[in-house]
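Appendix B. Extra example for self-study. Work through it before the problem class; the solution is given directly after the inputs so you can check yourself.
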Amino acid sequence: MDLCRLTIHEAADLLKKREVSSVELTEAVLHQVEAVDGKVNALVTVTADLALDQARRADERIKRGDATPLTGIPGVLKDNLCTRGIRTTCSSRMLADFVPPYNATVVEKLLGQGMVIIGKANLDEFAMGSSNEHSAFFLTRNPWNTDCVAGGSSGGPAVAVATDETLFALGSDTGGSIRLPASFCNVVGLKPTYGRVSRYGLVAFASSLDQIGPLTKDVTDAATVMNVIAGHDERDSTSLPHPLPDYSSSLVPDIKGMRIGVPREFFVAGMQQGVVDQINAAIALLEGLGAVIDRDASLPSIRYGLAAYYIIGPCEASANLARYDGVKYGYSAPDADSMWDAMEKTKERGFGAEVKRRLMLGTYALSAGYYDAYYLKALKVRTLIRQEFEGAFDKYDALVTPTSPTVPFKIGERLDDPVQMYLADVCTLPVNIAGVPAISVPAGFVDGLPVGLQLIGKPLGEETLLRIAFTYEQATGWHRKKPAVASISI
Amino acid sequence: MTISREEVRHLALLVRLGLSEDDVLRFSGQLSHILESFEILNEVDTSHVAPTANSIGIESVMREDEPKPCLAVEDVLANAPSRENTFFKVRPVLE
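Solution. Structure tokens for the complete assembly:
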């Protein structure tokens, strides 16, 4: 048995029965990293010694009979989640040597459960990007075709899960950064309701849109990880105080009578026909499983989502990233002759092109004379989008859409055309604008490349999403397909 | 909508971002193109719509102001590019 192939729940069963140890499991995963990562470049930092140490402690805990579903389970963290004593780079030259003095709340929670940290995974610099091509270090490749992009910005986490370099990963999602790479790599990715998971210790990109969530090999594991990371945190004043459900209890393969809307605005012009066909097949399957489908759902303002998002996100980023001034931490230009010169040189050398582009865009949209026309206008459109989602959830339990209008595109294809690149997020970003939860689940292949099905729920409607996703997954089994590159090992 | 090279330089000054002349030229074209794609928003009538800054509607979260353990000074300064004693060292602001 190849232990790295296991899901969290399969591994937890074996650990509990003491048929395998966490050390064995961790060694198998580290072995896989060694064999595969050179082909896909998912990980920025591998913490092998730490992982084996954590695994030994997990084995003792299991022996004591004190295990939780994540005790001894290897995972990776997107490299914008602060880890005490482990460098946290955001895949930026600005933070290439930054070692946080504290853990993100989600990291603290996972470590409390006895998780094993395999390493930190690659992303588009500061999570700004849809392809992973904007990492300052290296490009993460799609395991299904290494000439294609992994999707972004959580490309490293998604690829690590797809290639069995980990049993699960945490990512962050500001406009689709969990769901898009999940879709491109044939794994499950959940963006929770805004505020459901504490953002404390997540390096800020756009604070009103950012949310942390799991990338996993199946829906069951997504529920397991949510059970650990969700919940109120007084260190994040936007985290929600609402009581927590047991997400695992939603894993019921029954969607009879559930009302699901198919909003036509998500089927954008230029969408790949193969993707449309796969999504239509998935919708027909959901109908066959007993869901009541309305193919004429409509959220008319969705067509303005892309523009609103690419104003709001950069505006918030331009405020958040002002902190990288070369004074407190991060890169600092040593050869400057004044304070302003130091700041300008620090940012010029520390940030890559996409980050610079968004900082200037956000600054423009917030500047005197343009604030009303851009930022304020975008916030008003945000209200309309949110209201249309609210209206839709009066009628439907969930909405179903493609996660991405296309399968993974070729590396380099959109790099010099930001507007084309931004289109990759057109189906995912309305969800962040409205703050609602959504999940991407594997839904088949077009020309050997994965397609993702996106299910969108009402605020705090994660349980409904997990239930539908679980039912769909059990009926199809697309998630069990593995890329050939993952099986070259051992 | 076009963003002139002069405007790009002004924006870079607001961001305190150094740019090469190549960057200025490239960003002038790209930012213009991106801003053009935002013109679609002019179609929407928002004259009676209030803005939404935050999707969850939680406002002004308060808590008791109680002292709690915090990071040690040495931990906070560990990443400082330049320090003196227990301070971050910066270049002169006023000369």
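Self-check: Chain A touches chain B through 69 residues (CB under 8 Å). If your reasoning did not lead you there, revisit section 3.
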